[in-house]
Inverse folding.
């Protein structure tokens, strides 16, 4: 279904282009604040709708990512104020700090995401299977462990190791000095 | 400095296994240490990228070559993302709002709420009444069990159930379709029902509609007081006796009356309407009068507060606040001498609940006359003397009229004593919607 108004259709296209370009950054931004994938997905979806609704207020040519982060941050705060406090959630202060930091680091984070692709390609087959199994749509680490007959604990450990290996690979690719450990 | 402790908190956070204490400790550390913050953001960034990358991936078991597989996966994930985005972003703004709910529940048992916005799409009502007001001011009330599809603000498709529509000038041309019948409004109020057997009934309460079907493609004009039906198989539009029974729950809701119980009947006045002529021994009849109207005059009434109506002196009668937007209803019991027992004296009881608060009730003959000029339907001859006889204080005898305004300020509990040849009437002023 396309919009009956050509003006609106052009605007829609401009929005989709910008949104697709920055969606990954927005998702990562939100996930850092709520530490919960399913919540982050909901929040990003709501934020994307808000962005589309308010898109006429966005000035083309200015920083879409900063604008999108701002809207996403508001959705996060909105979400955190509404959910039951049955687990610890980050304070508004930390949300603000992370938002500022993510904004500053945005270029770096973009570069890291791009570098990830070739690093994933280099994973040995067994590790590649674990990553796929855990991150597949609808899958969780726990459900993957159950399927493959492993204990969840073992899979957590394997995954932690794989992520660290990928992180190192990304840093090598980007020529970043390894952080001393 | 990235130590094992921080790394452990971050790992747990990503795996969603962090305890309350872990999360508190991580927060404390992040607040104090910007290097830890960056490290955390990098870790989440990797984690979220993996999620995005693999959650969009399709099963590729049957595909032969790795290179090809990857290309296919990327194409598939792009298609998926594009699909998701266009799904979220189709400009599908709400076109109607739920403005009344009387015990209305959806198919999963979820209660409908007033103020909910409705977009185009299917709507299932398992029971109760739900009223939708469209942006163009078309109003429909749906009575469950019903399945309806809201196409746009000018058209709905009724698969099953009962719908009554009140269509103002701004929405003339509003369409209710069923499997067999196409009903076009020409400025009116009407009802359409579809039974489980696929029988479509159309009933015109007021004004005109055009009804067409496969065998009557040119349409047939139907005016107030007429009814037709179309069976699933015949495809012809057949006249039937005018009978509003199946619409009597949904129809009043269009006019701001949520519920009537007991011997109450809601009637929409047509062009030939004359309350005095409307004889009904069995029911207290409710006529909607002027809608959404701000009177210039001072309005004097008999009752404003909850309680039972008692006679009062003219100078003690309360007046309404100025500048209020009001909708008026006339309630009447017109008993006429009837067959075998012309002198019988029965009581007729009923209860009526309005959607909006009642701001005043007018009983006294003089006040009825005064308010008729303001709220009455133009060109209608209202009758002369009318009488609601309240029980005088301390009087224990039977046989008086009783009107009680309930504490919710929306409900009237009424008991009127039949008095053949006499007309019991009173006017209820309600806040406009």
């Amino acid at each position: 279904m396309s919009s009956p108004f050509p003006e609106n259709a052009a605007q829609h296209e401009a929005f989709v282009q910008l949104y697709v370009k920055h969606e990954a950054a927005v998702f990562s931004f939100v996930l850092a604040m709520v530490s919960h994938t399913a919540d982050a997905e909901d929040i990003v979806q709501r934020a994307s709708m808000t962005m589309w609704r308010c898109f006429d207020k966005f000035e083309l040519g200015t920083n879409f990512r900063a604008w999108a982060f701002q809207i996403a941050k508001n959705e996060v705060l909105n979400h955190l104020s509404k959910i039951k406090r049955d687990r610890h959630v980050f304070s508004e202060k930390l949300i603000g700090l992370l938002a500022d930091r993510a904004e500053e680091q945005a270029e770096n984070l973009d570069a890291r995401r791009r570098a990830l692709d070739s690093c994933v390609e280099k994973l040995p087959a067994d590790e590649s299977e674990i990553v796929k199994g855990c991150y597949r749509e609808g899958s969780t680490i726990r459900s993957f462990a159950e399927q493959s007959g492993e204990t969840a604990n073992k899979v957590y450990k394997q995954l932690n190791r794989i992520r660290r290996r990928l992180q190192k690979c990304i840093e090598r690719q980007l020529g970043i000095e390894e952080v001393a450990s | 400095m990235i130590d094992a402790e921080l790394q452990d908190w971050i790992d747990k956070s990503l795996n969603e296994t962090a305890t309350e204490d872990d999360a508190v400790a991580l927060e404390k550390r992040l607040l104090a240490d910007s290097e830890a913050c960056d490290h955390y953001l990098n870790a989440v960034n990797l984690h979220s990228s993996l999620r995005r990358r693999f959650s969009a991936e399709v099963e590729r078991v049957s595909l032969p070559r790795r290179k090809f597989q990857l290309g296919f996966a990327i194409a598939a994930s792009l298609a998926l993302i594009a699909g998701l985005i266009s799904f979220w972003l189709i400009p599908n703004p709400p076109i109607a709002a739920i403005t009344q709910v009387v015990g209305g529940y959806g198919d999963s048992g979820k209660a409908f709420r007033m103020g909910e916005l409705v977009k185009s799409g299917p709507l299932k009502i398992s029971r109760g009444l739900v009223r939708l007001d469209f942006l163009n001011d078309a109003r429909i009330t749906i009575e469950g069990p019903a399945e309806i599809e809201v196409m746009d603000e000018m058209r709905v498709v009724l698969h099953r159930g009962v719908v009554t529509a009140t269509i103002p000038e701004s929405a003339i041309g509003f369409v209710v379709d069923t499997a067999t019948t196409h009903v076009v409004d020409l400025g009116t109020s009407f009802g359409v029902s579809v039974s489980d057997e696929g029988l479509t009934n159309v009933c015109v309460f007021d004004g005109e509609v055009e009804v067409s079907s496969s065998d009557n493609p040119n349409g047939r004009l139907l005016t107030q007081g007429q009814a037709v039906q179309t069976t699933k198989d015949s495809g012809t539009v057949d006249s039937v006796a005018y009978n509003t029974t199946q619409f009597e729950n949904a129809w009043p809701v269009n006019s701001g009356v949520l519920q009537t119980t007991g011997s109450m009947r809601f009637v929409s006045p047509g062009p030939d309407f004359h309350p005095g002529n409307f004889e009904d021994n069995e029911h207290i009849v409710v006529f909607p009068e002027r809608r959404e109207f701000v009177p210039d005059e001072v309005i004097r009434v008999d009752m404003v507060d909850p309680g039972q109506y008692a006679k009062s002196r003219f100078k003690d009668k309360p007046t309404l606040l100025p500048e209020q937007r009001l909708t008026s209803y006339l309630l009447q019991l017109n008993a006429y001498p009837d067959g075998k027992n012309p002198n019988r004296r029965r009581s007729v009881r009923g209860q009526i609940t309005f959607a909006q608060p009642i701001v005043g009730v007018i009983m006294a003959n003089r006040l009825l006359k005064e308010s008729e000029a303001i709220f009455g339907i133009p060109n209608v001859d209202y009758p002369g003397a009318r009488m609601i006889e309240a029980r005088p204080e301390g009087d224990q005898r039977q046989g008086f009229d009783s009107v009680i305004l309930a504490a919710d300020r929306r409900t009237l509990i009424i008991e009127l004593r039949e008095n053949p040849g006499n007309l019991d009437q009173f006017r209820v002023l309600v806040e406009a919607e």
Notes: The CA atoms of residues 335 and 422 of chain B lie 7 Å apart. Chain B has a mean pLDDT of 82. The two ends of chain B are 65 Å apart (CA to CA). Chain B has six helices and 22 strands.
